[in-house]
Amino acid sequence: MKSDPAKRIYDIQQFGEFGGVNPSITDSSTYTFLEGETMEETFLGHMEGCFLYSRHWNPSNKYLADALAAMEKTESAWITSSGMAAITCSLLQVCNSGDHIVTSVTTYGGTYAFLKNWLPKYNIEVSFVDITKLEQVKAAIRPNTKVIYTETVTNPLLQVSDIPELAKIAHDNGAKLMVDNTFTPMIFSPAELGADFVVYSMTKFINGKNDCVAGAICGSNEFIAQLSDVNDGTAMLLGPVLDPLRSSSILKNLHTLHLRMKQHSSNALYVSQKLEKLGLDVKYPGLESFSQHKLHSNLMNKQFGYGGLLAIDFKTEQNANKIMFKMQQAGVGYLAVSLGYFRTLFSCSGHSTSSEIPAEVQKEMGLSDGLVRLSVGLDNDIEEVFEKIKSCL
User: Fold this and answer.
1) The whole model's pTM is what?
2) Per CATH, domain 5-254 is 3.40.640.10
3) In the CATH scheme, what is the homologous superfamily, with its name and number, of domain 258-392?
4) What region does 73 belong to: left with phi over 0, alpha with psi -120 to 50, or beta?
5) pLDDT tens figures, 103-147
């Protein structure tokens, strides 16, 4: 057992204003001060425990940030209104015009579009590599490289990033390693493995209900202070603040994350093994046939399993669409984007969440036109679910 993020969350004691077992929800956008000097010191970021304005900090977001920092074993964290806000604010805080980023070509489509289409407008260059080939990563490094960016398990091909080795490459070259751990909360602890910053779309597994959009950035006290600086902090100045009511809701859901990840993983492993026996082309890190099964096993916190995501290659978009339609009709789950929900969700990645990636690039990276990503739900009777899937093939 490498780490116990669940225990670290449970060890935090956070009480409501009147002794409530849940922290009180902040219903204020601005906060009062007894003295003018205190307001000034808070504005400059020199006062602990004081709140200025909800776009900067508010108690509800601070409670959630503290819990996430405990989970990730980082000094601090920052809450954002979406996963993309967490990614974009972090990268823009680290990089200036003239800087360079090395990143995985296999990544979430929105992230790819930001890196490929948006950053070059501000003279920030990006090199896309196969993140599983460390020699490619090393070869892409330049004197002005500031960040290596990757996903712990990439979207949608489920490639595993060797975080300790990537951290070594980054640090040897004066760069930072930034890791998106959205697919594998608790399963991986990127900061303990060497990552400098860890980002999340909390919309997915962390919240688990598909009832809100939210993100998080976990890192050092210094980095979070930079993000929230009133003069040049990207999170402060771009303003992607999360509503306190949503923060409070996510914090409560966070306390069941360890149970949910175990069930997602158990169900996904069962379905993957059964589908593989049927002769389907299945990608799932928990399968011994998976090319990076050993690496995943060596880096993971084993008590949480191999995750709730698997991919099946049905070869063509037509086949994928037919089967997904049948699965929805059979009650397997929903034909929908996103992941980490208590029901199973499925989509054809190249024509949905990875559609921002040009077709020729999809082909080069090995993303089949008929690849279907399944986010396996929390079903109590996974054997019945599998039989429904089988009937649709």
Assistant:
1) 0.95
2) yes
3) Aspartate Aminotransferase, domain 1 (3.90.1150.10)
4) left
5) 999 999 999 999 999 999 999 999 999 999 999 999 999 999 999
